[in-house]
Amino acid sequence: MSILANKDTRVVIQGGVAGVNAARRMAEFCYLNKKSLYVEAFVYPPDAGKTNEVPYGSGLLAIPVYKAVAEATKNHPSINTSLVYIGADRACAGTMEALNDPHIKLVSMITEGVPEKDAKLLARQATKLGKVFNGPSSIGIISAGSCRLGVIGGAYDNLVACKLYREGSFGVITKSGGLSNEIIWICSQFADGITTAIGIGGDAYPGTDYVSYLEMFENDPKTKAVVIVGEMGGDLEERAAEWYGAKKRRIKLLAVVSGFCQESLPKGMKFGHAGAKEGMKGEGSARSKSDALKKAGAIVPPTFGALGPAIKETYEEFVKSGQIVPVADVPASDVPRLPKTVEQAMKDNEVTVVPLIRTTISDDRGDEPCYDGYPASELINKGYEIPHIIGLLWDKRLISKQEAEIVKRILMLSADHGPCVSGAYATILAACAGIGLSQAVAAGMIMIGPRFGGAVTDAGRWFKYAVDNKMTVDEFLAYMKKNVGPVPGIGHRVKSLRNPDKRVKELVGYVKSLNIKTPCLDFALQVEQVTAAKKDNLILNVDGTMAAVLVDIGFPVDSLNGFFILARTIGLIGHWVDQKRQDSRLIRLFDYLVNYAAPKRREVPPLK
Amino acid sequence: MAKVLEGPGMGLMKKWGITVPNYVVVTSVEQFNELAKVNDWIQQGKLVAKAHEALGSRFKLGLVKVGLDRKGAEAAVKEMLGKQVGSITVAQVIVSEMIPHKEEYYASVKSTRAGSEILLANCGGIEVESNWDRVKKLAVEVGEKPASADLDKLAKEAGFTGPVAKKMAEFANKLFTCFDNEDAQYLEVNPVVVRESDGELIALDAVTLLDGDAKFRHPDWNFQFAAEFGRAYTKDEVEVMAVDSKIKGSVKFIQIPGGNIAMLPAGGGASVYYSDAVVARGGKLANYAEYSGDPPDWAVEVLTEKVASLPDIKHIIVGGAIANFTDVKKTFGGIIAGFRKAKSEGKLKGVKIWVRRGGPNEKEGLELMRKLKDEGFDINVFDRNTPLTDIVDMALQNK
Question: Which domains does chain B have, with CATH numbers?
Answer without folding.
Answer: 22-97 (3.30.1490.20), 104-217 (3.30.470.20), 235-397 (3.40.50.261)
